[in-house]
Design a protein that fits this description.
Number of strands: 9
Distance between the termini: 89 Å
Order of helices and strands: HHEEEEEEEEE
Shape: globular
Structural class: mainly beta
Strand order of the largest sheet: 4-3-2-1-9-8-7-6-5
Number of helices: 2
Length: 160
């Protein structure tokens, strides 16, 4: 047996502690680090369990949510005086957000213009609608025109 193969023995006074004690000591390192940083900053550190979690930003209420299949598409129009429209077309390959959207004169849809000048129109008709892929029945049918193609689907419309 060579010297490298023999286990090293240290006197009891300098033997390393057992692994279980090492784990408990390493678990204290994050708390010790926070305490030391707080002491250096001159400000008392808030206890970790009293820190308030940040609330996720609220999603805007929707006036209309329309979906369709073949190809898959989704349109959402925010409720309120200055609505925005978000589109995912052709199975999500094309995504757009329109910041200037107005309700059409018949109050059965919305129109807007994309950044590149393409006119977008979304209309709905309150009638039972099925998307053809699920058993879900929607309260309205929907049609979306993106300047190049007509998409057909169903919609959920907020109550007036």
């Amino acid at each position: 047996m060579t010297r490298a193969d023999r286990p090293t023995r240290y006197p009891a006074s300098i033997n390393p502690p057992p692994r279980s004690r090492m784990r408990s000591r390493t678990a204290l390192l994050p708390a010790l680090t926070v305490a030391l940083l707080a002491a250096c900053s001159g400000k008392p550190a808030p206890p970790p369990d009293t820190a308030k979690p940040r609330a996720a930003p609220a999603k805007p209420a929707l006036a209309l949510r329309a979906i369709g299949t073949e190809p898959g598409w989704l349109a959402e129009v925010d409720a309120g005086p200055k609505p925005k429209m978000r589109l995912q077309l052709d199975y999500g390959l094309r995504k757009m957000e329109l910041s200037i959207v107005i309700e059409n004169e018949h109050k059965d849809g919305y129109v807007g213009v994309t950044d590149d000048g393409t006119m977008i129109g979304l209309i709905y008709k309150r009638e039972q609608c099925s998307d053809g892929m699920s058993d879900r029945v929607y309260a309205a049918s929907a049609a979306l025109w993106d300047g190049h193609k007509m998409y057909q689907g169903c919609a959920e419309v907020a109550s007036p």
